[in-house]
Amino acid sequence: MLSLALAGLLACGGGGGGGGGGGGSQPPALVYTDPPAVGYRFVRDAALSTPGHLVLDLVGPGSDRGRGVAFSLELPPGPVAWAKVAPGDTQYMQNILFDLGSGVPLLKTAIAGTTLLADAFQKGPGNDRALDGPICRVALDPQGPLSPGAIPITVVSFRFLPAAGRGLQDASAAVGTLAVP
Fold it and tell me: Is residue 120 situated within a structural domain?
């Protein structure tokens, strides 16, 4: 049985900047620094991220081939929350890489408290993909006023379905640093 778990993606934007002369300022922005470019990692999607909507792409290593991923990412309560990547999305993750086939797609997400659980799998054996580029994406948004400081993102679990074999394989996935300046 394939477990439901999400490997988290966080997207973020640049700085908030001040408002024009004496009238107040924009709220602080989320600033995300990518982890080192090694292994599975969540990197900021510069094209889709804004100061108030952080989009993270899960990128894989050049060495693996597979048919799916399952991960879970956790945020602290309060300052930010998981969000859909685009307004019309039905799930909290967008598939980028896998051919989900016809019928019911094998893509599922859930929010359990502050934890995002996500799965995306290809149907049937074969048709494996190189996991050396963007695999899927996730997003988060601020929840109310933000105070300056770091906001930890924790990878609770990360697994992938290798090209050969029937079971999920544990792997490490890195997240960068999320902060409010």
Answer: yes
Element housing 80 (H / E):
strand 80-83
Q: What global pTM score does this model have?
A: 0.82
Which CATH number is 49's domain given? 2.60.40.680
pLDDT in tens, 65-77: 888 899 999 999 9
- Contact between residue 97 and residue 130 where contact means Cβ atoms under 8 Å apart: no
Residues 6+ apart with CB under 8 A from 93: 6, 9, 85, 107, 109, 116, 118, 120, 136, 137, 138
Please answer whether residues 68 and 119 qualify as being in contact, where contact means their C-beta atoms are separated by less than 8 angstroms: yes
Q: What are the φ/ψ torsions at residue 78 (nearest 5 degrees)?
A: 110, -85
